[in-house]
Design goal:
82% of the residues lie in helices and 0% in strands. The protein has 15 helices and no strands. The radius of gyration is 18 Å and the shape is globular. Keywords: Membrane, Transmembrane, Transmembrane helix.
Length: 320
């Protein structure tokens, strides 16, 4: 599959088209609004479904199969926030708090980008390992905690303990880990009972969720124009670097091509659910426009449009 086919496959997927439809609605000043209750419901559904399906797969996965991928994911969780922090300090010349806020977001993971990578891999005829949602949970937490620790090293302020509790009990981590637990215990027998609700409707729910995210991202473009082109370049260069490291570690851990693309995309993504909640609590002096505009306005659409096909094309070469 050449790069033009990869781009066509990605650009014409219902999820990507829905994202840009949402952005178009904002640019055209449409009266389209997304009910708050529906948005929250879709978030809960997607997060639990990710964990549950992963737990079912994990129920018949050996410890030996997941040990190295889990170690590679933890290494990513420690490395990526440090890279993002020092890049933000040196290149964007941000203070410690704002650089640490960006580090927390780019060290954590976007669950929706993870889902988009899974959909892309499946549409490409490959299959990622079933325990990938476990790796999402492993990558979600260390990045946020390390980002906050980096800020405290300099400012010696902020409520670290409360922020860690916020991350661990926040809905994204709690629902995914809880879904994993339910899936592991109920196994394939449990899946058969709820398959009609958690498998077939999943892609449709994700498409609607991306319609809303397109509207949110379009509203953040004003922040990007104010903060300048350097933040835009940061939001594209850091994911490429993190995604490359993710591919190398995936190769070392023995993941399949599909699993490698998903892990690289996870490393390249930036959180906009768990990290903002934790950062707002622990680093109240950081500017939300800065980290939300970079994560949601630049990195999310960049990965959706170009990043995932690029990680896939690179993996094709590395995996032969």
């Amino acid at each position: 599959m050449d790069i033009s086919e990869l781009l066509r496959l990605n650009l014409l997927s219902p999820m990507v088209l829905a994202f840009f439809l949402g952005a178009l609605a904002v640019w055209l000043k449409s009266d389209l609004t997304f009910p708050e209750g529906l948005y929250a419901t879709l978030s809960l559904y997607l997060l639990f479904a990710i964990g549950f399906k992963g737990g079912v797969e994990l129920s018949h996965t050996s410890v030996q199969a997941i040990a190295l991928p889990a170690l590679a994911t933890l290494l990513l969780g420690l490395l990526t926030p440090v890279v993002a922090y020092f890049t933000a300090r040196r290149y964007l010349r941000l203070d410690e708090a704002n650089a640490a806020a960006l580090a927390a977001h780019y060290g954590s993971v976007s669950a929706v980008t993870f889902l988009a990578a899974l959909s892309f891999v499946q549409a490409s005829g490959h299959r990622a390992e079933g325990f990938m949602p476990t790796l999402v949970a492993l990558l979600e937490v260390p990045g946020v905690i390390l980002g906050i620790l980096l800020a405290r090293r300099a400012s010696r302020g902020g409520r670290l303990g409360e922020a860690i509790r916020e991350v661990l009990t926040g809905k994204s981590v709690f629902l995914m880990v809880g879904g994993l637990w339910v899936g592991v215990l109920s196994g394939e027998e449990g899946m058969k009972k709820v398959e009609a609700f958690f498998v077939a409707p999943f892609q449709g729910a994700l498409t609607l969720f991306l319609l809303e995210l397109g509207m949110v991202a379009a509203r953040r473009l004003a922040d990007l124009r104010r903060l300048g082109v350097r933040l835009v370049l940061f939001g594209m260069a850091v994911p490429l670097l993190h995604g490359s490291v993710g591919l190398v570690l995936a190769k070392w851990a023995g993941l399949s091509l599909g699993g490698a693309v998903v892990l690289a995309t996870m490393a390249a993504s930036a959180s906009y659910i768990a990290a903002p909640a934790a950062v707002r609590l622990a680093l109240p002096q950081a500017n939300p426009s800065l980290y939300l505009a970079a994560a949601l306005g630049v990195t999310f659409p960049f990965n959706l449009l170009l990043g995932i096909p690029l990680y896939y094309a690179t993996a094709l070469r590395l995996w032969g």
